[in-house]
Amino acid sequence: MSEVTPEAVSWTWLDGQVLPTAEARIGVLDRGFLYGDSVFETLRTIEGRGLFLKEHLDRLRKSLARLEIDFQFKDPWMEQRIDQLVQQQIGTEVVLRITVTRGDRIDGALEGSGCQPRLVVMSSPITSDPPSHPLKLVISSRHKTPPEVFDPTIKSGNYLGSIRARDEAKAAGADDAVLLSPDGVVTELTCANLFWITDGTAFTCDDALVLNGITRSVVIRLLEEQGVEVRVGRFSRFELNRAGEAFATSSIQGVRAIGSLEGRSLESDAPASLCKRLIEQYQQYCRQVMTEGAR
Ligand SMILES: Cc1ncc(COP(=O)(O)O)c(C=O)c1O
Fold it and tell me: Does pTM surpass 0.90?
């Protein structure tokens, strides 16, 4: 039997203790469990430090404030919790998930007042290179939840819309799905932001309809720095269909090329395609940020 080394196990910080994730327990009254009444962040480490950690913690605070979950923390305090986990996994990069639930409500009432928020921080080792083949996408029959129903800029624990759209995409033989708003605006993928390039201009959905991705902001800046016009707005599937190239962005995948949409190829063979260049530039930028000491 092979021995399980500490660095190969997922670890969790809960109630002041660090323990193997498989042994971490929360109660059945937790509202994250009951209703998805929680917020979270997912990020990766580079050389043991959280990539764009400050930006993730800022977005966590915004999500908490928008849901009126009263959980206060200082960045150095959270960094210490993360360091405790990362120390278990020296030599391995990890994916970190920071979750804050509204906590328990003993009487089971729906309203969210009177709860004590609960923090759970988890780290799982990145043991192999994540898949990098260009994504095969379909357009989902399900709509992105509009801001009038639930603000999509909140990174809440309720991912049912994304889960159902991902399952539908997988059943159709695709990797992921593009979600349209109820009035036909191209928004994002199930767990990533979407960009496409038409005639040298980059397009992506407007801030109010999508999660304001940390990777998305970096990519917008990198594109603009190289003189590419970035149009952030409300575009229909007809505009997406005119794309020559497309890519997805997220903290775990970075920049990921999209190979096809609804069976139409979007892969550029040109070695200098904008997407290929951007994948390199993004990786280089991340290394630079980490060597300059930013957390
Ligand atoms: C719905 C959704 N959109 C976009 C993203 C990408 O955001 P980020 O670049 O901050 O990881 C995610 C990441 O989990 C997501 O779940």
Answer: yes
